[in-house]
Structures are given as structure tokens and as C-alpha cells.
Amino acid sequence: MATVCALSAAPLAPQAVAADTPPYTETYRPQFHFTPEKNWMNDPNGLVYFKGEYHLFYQYNPNGNSWGDMSWGHAVSKDLVHWTELPLALSHDDEEMVFSGSAVVDWNNTTGFGTTKNPPMVAIYTSFNKATGIQAQSLAYSTDRGRTWTKYQGNPVIDIGSREFRDPKVQWYEPTKSWLMTVSLSTEHKVQFYSSKNLKDWDLLSEFGPAGATGGVWECPDLFPLAVDGDENNIKWVLVVNINPGGIAGGSAAQYFVGDFDGTKFTAEDKGTYTPPSGTVVQDFESTDFGTWTTTGTAFGAGPAAGALAGQGAVEGFDGKGLANSFHSGDGTTGTLTSPEFTVDSSYLNFKVGGGRHPHEAGTVMEQGPPPAGTVLADFEGGSYGDWTKTGDAFGSAPATGTLPNQQEVSGFLGSGLVNTYLNGDSTTGTLTSPEFTIDKNHINFLIGGGNHPVGSANPTALELLVDGQVVRSATGKDAEALNWASWDVSDLAGKKAQLRIVDDNTGGWGHLNVDHIMLSDTKARPVSQETSVNLIVDGEVVRSATGSNSETLDWASFDLRPYAGKKARIQVVDMNTAGWGHILADRFTAADAPAKSVVQRADWADYGKDYYAAVSWENAPGGKRYMVGWMNNWDYSGAIPTSPWRGAQSAPREMALRTIDGRVRLTSKPVASLESLREKSPATASGVTVKSTTKPLIGPAARGKALDIEATFSLKDAERFGLKVRTGADGEETVIGYDTTTQELYVDRTRSGAVDFNSTFPGVQRAPLQARNGKVKLRILVDWSSVEVFGGSGEAVITDQIFPDPTSQGVEVFAENGSVKLDGARVWHLDSYRD
Prior knowledge:
About 0% of the residues lie in helices and about 45% in strands. It has about 850 residues and is mainly beta. Strands 18, 20, 21, 34, 35 and 37 form a six-stranded antiparallel β-sheet that branches. Strands 24, 26, 27, 29, 30 and 32 form a six-stranded antiparallel β-sheet that branches. Strands 45-56-47-52-53-54 form a six-stranded antiparallel β-sheet, with no helix packed on it. A hairpin with a 4-residue loop joins strand 49 and strand 50. The longest helix has 4 residues, at about 600. The two termini are about 30 Å apart. Pfam families: Glyco_hydro_32C (PF08244), Glyco_hydro_32N (PF00251). Belongs to the glycosyl hydrolase 32 family.
């Protein structure tokens, strides 16, 4: 459980919901995924089965649609599909917030909270102390099937004085007749195991970690046994560790380890040391200078570094004695390091990369040119706010002339004035509102910097566009003082009267905003790059890019060069960032026939999509089944998704198994069988269809829909890529679910899936390794009003992604690229709402 701010572009305001919209019919409301009627939800908590009911508790803000006042919401189901929302279970109070945790049935009344005849349900949760920030483990109990709860008077039951100690998962461990707790030391990338006879007195057994992916905090651990390939004589243990950021698709994700648990400690299976593919070294930075590579700026110095530079933490993971390091004179310097032009004649370029996580963004420029032509609405010159009206105390009597006292250096504004709400520090708040104007051009361009607190979060720092008093566009900063161009496409608002409002409602860190030079223009302003990246440039365009993970440890990355065979290319290492982690590390550029894999790619993931996090499993499920559910969102943009009056959904619950796949034991998932109870009568079907280098409707009108369950099997022919497109509609709107034979990967492309521009990390392609079996690829696809979940093969490749398509986009199409594929068979069921 964490508060993580996302890099934000220009968040769209949540679609204003008409006051008369009945609950659960809103534009993006999931129909077969659990959502609360209103307000913010994140991690699933307290998953336990008791007296015929599956309990789902969850991180919940009873007071709003953004993270805050964390409490436990509550829902129950008899089948993991039909959910009933119940009253708030565990509430925040003046002293604490109730962070994530688990629940058990204390059958033997070891706690004394109930009786053996009426055993208590006990919740074990992380208490976040509001005064100290300390995270400790606490208890609450219920003797009426979880309907009402009492916090234990002796709380907390484990307090190690840490601010990063959370998310206890407790189970009964029969061999020692004791309770077993799995809990995370988040910033140390460790999991601890504790034992207790009564849930109150705990002894530390052991620790696991760091291991696998460690590019973010470790949260919401889970530990459970499963039979391998159904063989009850071959039991392995699975340790799930959710990580944020640093997941396989960027941002938050669910990692797992397979191994053994002996009652005291968990031992992960040894995967051996990694050896990257051999190849021809292009540049290894072992000379005293950069040779034929050229630099601009000062960030890279005159030649390779021998490791860490002055003021830098220990640099590790580079090969030999030298590397490219742009930390010369600290993060404040910028520059580029560029290879000579070469002809692409190998399949892959492998290299090591480290440093800051500031990805290349398409459409950025290397240096700020003059603003595009247009009408200036406000440039904040001339020493006054003119006819703008202000409230509060953040704006002062006149625009700022630059950096304010105790503020880091403000840059990137034009002229001598700007709006800067750091007046007397972050604690001041207020609004500044423009007079009315008419939108008569296609874009509104503006310079913006300061805090990242988007509209929809509890206390925004944002520039808003108002039409008829409603917020129709908004933008926030990136927790950096430098202003940069941002732009809204307002062509759909032509002729409308509008106002601009600058809001600073935040008194915490980065609780201010910098704004300048707001203008109407028919040309979109191009932001200046703030990347720290390694780029491949072909025909003047960046066609491949990699960035660091805010770590001084270098790791392998790889560019697929095959589409550019025979073309002229350059490698460019770029540091355009002057803020925290504003540097890049690179080493050992190698031309090879196969891709190198990073630690993150070599780790194991329960789901390869962007939107499956805090995944945990139900204790005590009937028949020894292991069902798992995750929060269907990502901390990179969770506060900005365009849903209202709720924000956050849970994934479809999944039945988990361990299977041997390609010689390795893998955790697999499939949708819980009871989901099929929502299928409407008979499916629409297709069989024996060959598709060649085209896209065409699958079946026709009968397959169209917003909530679907699709099963499809393809036989490989010579197509490079093939699959299905769902939620297709006007203007090329589509969510592509494909298989890439050239990389042997399942993928979901949501670049054109609908609303994608509320955050720069949202659009993109997610990929999961998947081998065809006997020349066939099997897919199971769950489509809801704002999500897709794709299960490939035997469930070893799963991709969960949110999408926000237009309600009229309901098409389903089959496609093949660069060749043919045979669709052996497809069945498409329409799914009803679980509330029907």
C-alpha cells in the first residue's frame, strides 16, 4: 500500500456523470468486475472463505474518489462472481489509517476473541500511524460473519519502528500448529516470516530477499503451496511479491518466486547465473576517450567514467573498467553522446543501461524554439494579473519574476513573469481564474511545471479548462520546477465559451504549480525533451528507446533491429534532465543474433499487463483451490483514470496452478469457472477461417459487444502477427490482442483504445512470452466496459489492461499481418452484469 504519484501529461477530467445516471450504468463501469458504488478502491485485502461466503475487503476511501483516509471496504460473494457490497468494515480514525492486510478464521479460538462454537474472523492489517508515519501490524475481530468489527485493545501486535513494514498475509500452518505471517520490508526488498500461537505474540522466523526484480518497493506478499501438474506428491510453494514501480510493463506489477518452504524459511529455485547472447562489441567504453562517438553539452565529460563520479552513489553492473556516465557535475548538466552512422546488419543491439527513469516521449524536441503562432491568453508580464481573479494566499498580488525564496531554481518560463504558487512555501493555497474567452483554434498551449497532483487526486495542483462550469481538460506538473510545453486538443470545443483556472489546493511536498504563456493556436506546442535514455535513430526519428530505473546498477536491455535491416542508423545516449535522477549510464553496446534479457524480463510475473497489482489469494477456499485477485490499476496513473463516481476495480478472480511449461515450473491462471454463469445463452461462433494480410469482422453483428467472453484457437501459417481486435469503432478506435510470431509473444496494444491521453505512460503495448503449442495459439479473452484480460496458452501468459473506449465501439475483428493465419475456431459469449 503506497501513495505514489504518477508522471502526468494532461489528464482529462473524469467524464462528468449526469446527475440522473443510474448507478452502475456509467460510461466505463465494469459489469463483471467488482467495483464499489462510489469512491476510491485499491488493494484487495482480507481474502477469506467462511460459512459459504467469499469475503473481499479492500483499501477504500469512504470520503472521496482519490487515495486517502484508507479504510477497509467490504463485499461478499457465494461464487466469486456475484458480489454484494456491505458497509465499511474497518475505518480510519484520528490516530491511524488502515492499510492492507489479510483475514483468517480462528477455528480454535487461539485469540480468545470468540468461542470454539462461534470462531472469530480476525483481520491482521497494517496500522499507519498518522503522527509518526510508523507502520505496524494490528488486529481486529468479528463474531458475526464479518459484519461488524472491533479493533484489538492491545494493538499493534508487531512494531519494529519502521515506516516501510506492511501488508501482512496470515495463514494457519498445520505442521507446527501455528499461525504464519508473510509481511514486507518494502524499501529493503525483503519479505519477513513470523510465527505465532495466538495471533498476538509473534516470533521472527526468517527473511527472503532482495531477489528478482527490485526496481520498486516490495508490497502485498503472499505465500501458498500448490501441486505441480496436479501431482499431490510434488508440492512447491509460491511467494508472490508485488512491486511498484519496476514491473514488467512499467509501474506496478505482481512478481512471483517458486520454491520450497520448510516451516521456517522460503528458498527460491536457483535459476543459475545469466549469460547474455554472444555478439560483436560495438562500443565498450574501455578507451580513455569516446573514439568516433561525439558529445554535445557537458554531462558526459571528455571520455568514459571509471565508475561513480563526484557526488554519485556506487555505480555497479558495468563491464570492464569504463562506461558512459552523464553525472559529470551532478544531475544539473545535460548533453548527448552519439555514435557514427552505421548500416544495420544484425538482428539485435544489446547493451547495459542504468540511471534515471525518464523515458523518451514522442513529439519532444531537443531545445525550446519560439512558441507557435497564435493568440496569447496570458503571459503574466507587466507586473499584474490583469483581469484574472484570485482566491487564497498562494498567488500573491502579482506574478512571480522567477524563483521564490527557498525554492529550487525555476526555469523554462518566457519573459520576466510567471504564475508560481510557491509563495511562502508549499503551505499556501488558492485559485486564479481567467475571464471568459471563446475557443477559436484547435489547441491551447501552455508552459507548466511544479507539483504532480492531478485533478481527481485529493489535493490537486492543476491548470483546468472550464466549459459551462465543468472541468473538461486539466494538466499538472511532474514534481520538477522546470516549465515545459503542454497542449490540449480543443478542436471538439470550437466556438464554446471557456475559462482557465489555476488551482493550488496542496500544502504538502511539491504543493505548488508554475504556469506561463497560455495561448490559443492551430499548432500543437512541442515539449522540450526531459529524457535520460538510449535511443536508436533511423531516418532522423527515434525508433527504439530505453531508459534507466532510478538505479545506479546497470542492467541489460535490447533493441530489435530486424525491421531496420540495411538501413542507416545511429545510437544516441541522451541526458536532457536536470532534476533528481537526471542522468543516464550506458555500457557494452553489442550486435547480436538474440536479445539480452534484463533482470525484470528474467523475473517471473503473474501477469504481464499494466493493470494487475497487489495480487493476493483467498485463504480457506473449498476443495483446496487457490483463487487470486488483483487491483486492476497501476500507480503510474491510478489517480487520473477517467472514471466517476468510483475509481478502481478488481480483476476477475483467477484459479491458480503450477504447471511445467517449456521445462520450467510456472504459475498459471484461468478465470474462475463460475464466471461462465454470466454467459448469455448460446455463443456466436466461427470456424475454419483463413485470414491473409487483412482485418475483417469476426462473425458479424452477433459478436459485437462491450462485455464479452471469447475463446479462440489459431493455427500458425506465415503471418508475422495475427489475432483479434476488440472494442473497435469510429476513427480507428481499437484494442489489439495479438500474437507476434517473430518474437513469440502475446501482446495487447491499447495505443488507440479510446481515452489514453490522461497520462503519458498509459498508451502502449504490453507483451508476454508465449510459445505456440503444436503450431497453435489458444486465447481466452475477457472484455468489459473498461478492461481486457487475455489468457494465452495454458494460462502462463496473462495480460490485464484497462481501456476507456467510446460506448459505441463494440466491434470484434480478426486480423493477420504480412501473411496468413487460420482461425480454427472462435466462440463469443455476451456476459451479463453480476448485479442483474
